[in-house]
Design goal:
- The protein is of the alpha+beta class.
- It folds into 2 domains: 410 residues, 4-Layer Sandwich (Purple Acid Phosphatase, chain A, domain 2); 162 residues, no CATH class.
- It is built from 17 helices and 24 strands.
- The strands form 5 sheets. Strands 1, 4, 5, 6, 7, 19, 20, 23 and 24 form a 9-stranded mixed sheet that branches. Strands 8, 9, 10, 11, 12, 13, 14, 15 and 18 form a 9-stranded mixed sheet that branches. A two-stranded antiparallel ribbon has the order 2-3.
- A hairpin with a 5-residue loop joins strand 12 and strand 13.
- The protein is elongated.
């Protein structure tokens, strides 16, 4: 009988490791996907296609058909509490993704004095899969871990919480095709014992007690399409007065706009969030937004709007590689439309423990800065990228050497004299000037550095170091080959020359890799720049987390739950109590062999809805 889950947990094809972002194939495939999705999104927006295929919005049946009804999806639940989970940026390495899925799927968890039941619904906040949206990656990196953590069952007394999803940029890399096919069919689609039933890539869900969760899809350009806008307008018009709305965004606009640094970037990142907030303000003016939550950045941080008291949480800890926090500011100016004046101030959340003030950053900023030093060992983890550098160096060396004839050292004197003469010959060629210009412009353009002047200076310095390595390395290798007479060996001299040059450039590629690692270390450690490149290169699966929410009539309690270290592959085992043919949803297929050491990142945080201001201005 076929097993639902492959039996060899060490099979890296079936149970994937963290995405190797600096792998040449991953870089090429991701670049192609980004290009294709950008062009596709501009000229064939799948959100419009999906809306066109769906039936027109019927205002009379809208709440019942799309939003969970008047009582909400949890309205008939016993007791006075509603529980919801939020997880984002999952679907990377099995160990980190499954660790979080396993905790989320537990019937109950105990942390300190708190007993938290399994949530009544699950929100997945974007980037369900890495590195791009393919059928195989969705299956192995996202669907399999969640099905193993909370297995599908046909038992009558089983619970089947709803799961709602919004896409992130990686879900959009195939034009949203597979995301819509997997999760937006409009039918009850099982993900283990969770059920996905939405029809579009966005949703407005009534949980009960007049509490709502809105998840909007801002595509790749922070734009809201008209059918989506019409949908949210219609929902807002049907919401009861005094509605409480939790907003789920694709990106943390408050952080992204601050990192952008310029007015154009700030306006771009706030465009979609402002638009959705304005719908709530205009169509349901008594509504309040106590919480805005997003993934996309793979860390945890929580800010509080000084005047409106809205909490802004970034929680992209579902499995993807870690992002730093040490560059984040304690205070951010924002155009959140929650106050009378145009700009509110976001202040980092804090709590006092044993007379020590702890900021709502995870990882803590001190730990984050320490982790940034890890790229000193860049060549060890990214040897294949070093081979690409070696190839580029080899091509550049051939172009420079060919200008005045291969192996020309300028004289027959001592080695050092030949070396300096060769250096002068290479540096005076038009090819060298062209290579220098291309490298400087390319590395300035590709530098993920927010401040423009710093981007130019650091990008130029980075390029100049590579140029020095290339120039001196080429001169050294070429002079060495010529000095020892390899090129003059009868019949095979030319072959020996090119073999020697290739070997020299291969070694030089690892020197270039070390330079690249030092560059990433410096810009990340000092300013928090290039966080995708620097932390993606290290593939850190630590500081994983998700959010559990407890909802009462006029109170929202936030439980941010983290694990500092993901289990190693050897820390997992197939569960002997799991049976494929008669699965029990409370018996996960794979179990940890040691304590996951889950804990509260902070808090819990209690938000009294009476302390939150109404939306009053457009900002």
């Amino acid at each position: 009988m076929k097993k639902n889950f492959p039996q060899d947990l060490n099979d890296r094809n079936e149970y994937r490791g963290m995405v190797h972002w600096f792998s040449p194939m991953v870089l090429i495939q991701t670049a192609k996907k980004v290009l294709d999705s950008t062009l596709f999104g501009q000229y064939a927006d799948r959100r419009l296609v999906q809306a066109a295929l769906d039936s027109p919005i019927d205002h009379e049946t809208l709440i019942e058909k799309y939003c969970g009804g008047e009582k909400g999806i949890c309205g008939d639940k016993d007791g006075s509490e509603i529980w919801a989970d939020y997880v984002a940026d999952l679907g990377d390495g099995f160990d980190s993704t499954y660790a979080i899925a396993y905790i989320i799927g537990q019937k109950e968890m105990k942390i300190g004095a708190h007993k938290l039941p399994r949530a009544d619904c699950l929100i997945m906040g974007g980037d369900q899969v890495y590195p791009d949206a393919s059928r195989d990656e969705y299956k192995k990196r996202m669907l399999r871990p969640y099905r193993a953590a909370f297995p599908r069952t046909s038992k009558k007394d089983a619970c089947h919480p709803k799961v709602f999803l919004i896409p992130g940029n990686h879900d959009w890399y195939d034009g949203l095709n597979l995301f819509l096919a997997h999760f937006c069919s409009g039918r009850d689609t099982p993900i283990g014992s969770w059920i996905a039933s939405q029809k579009r890539s966005y949703f407005a869900v009534h949980l009960g007690k007049n509490w709502w969760i809105w998840g909007f899809d801002s595509q790749l350009g922070e734009d809201i399409d008209k059918p989506q806008a019409d949908y949210f307008v219609a929902v807002a018009q049907k919401m009861k007065p005094d509605a409480k709305v939790i907003l789920c965004a694709s990106v943390p606009t408050w952080l992204k706009s601050d990192m952008a640094g310029d007015k154009k970037g700030q306006e771009e990142y706030y465009r979609a969030l402002h638009y959705i907030a304005s719908i709530i303000r205009n169509e349901c003016p008594k509504a309040k937004i106590p919480l805005v939550i997003s993934g996309d950045l793979h860390h945890y941080s929580r800010y509080v709007a000084k005047e409106s008291a809205t909490n802004f949480i970034t929680a992209g800890g579902g499995g993807a590689f870690l992002h730093p926090t040490h560059h984040l500011k304690d205070t951010i100016s924002t155009k959140w439309p929650g106050v009378d004046r145009n700009e509110d101030i976001l202040e980092i959340g804090t709590e006092t423990i044993d007379s020590e003030t702890k900021k709502a950053f995870y990882p803590p900023q001190k730990a984050s800065k320490h982790l940034a030093l890890g790229n000193v060992g860049f060549p060890l983890k990214n040897w294949d990228f070093c081979l690409v550098l070696a190839l580029l160096y080899w091509i550049c060396a051939l172009l420079m050497l060919s200008w005045n004839g291969y192996g020309s050292a300028g004289n027959n004197g001592p080695f050092l004299s030949q070396f300096w003469n060769q250096l002068g010959i290479l540096s005076s060629t038009p090819v060298f000037v062209l290579i220098t210009a291309v490298l400087i412009l390319g590395l300035i353009y590709s530098a993920e550095i927010g401040a423009r002047n710093r981007k130019i200076v650091i990008g130029t310095l980075h390029a100049l170091v590579h140029i020095v390595v290339l120039l001196f390395g080429t001169a050294l290798v070429s002079t060495t080959i010529s000095y020892f007479g390899f090129q003059s060996v009868y019949a095979v001299g030319e072959i020996l020359y090119f073999v020697g040059l290739t070997a020299g450039m291969l070694a030089l590629g690892f020197v270039g890799g070390f330079v690249w690692g030092i560059y990433l270390t410096i810009v990340s450690w000092m300013w928090g720049d290039h966080s995708n490149g620097a932390f993606g290169a290290m593939r850190l699966d630590s500081y994983r987390h998700f959010i559990r929410l407890k909802i009462e009539h006029d109170k929202l309690t936030i439980f941010p739950i983290g694990i500092d270290e993901s289990p190693k592959r050897s820390d997992w085992a197939l569960n002997p109590d799991y049976v494929d043919a008669d699965a029990d949803q409370d018996t996960p297929a794979i179990i940890p062999q040691k304590d996951l050491k889950k804990h509260f990142i902070e808090g819990p945080i209690v938000i009294n809805i009476n302390d939150v201001a109404f939306l009053k201005s457009a900002g």
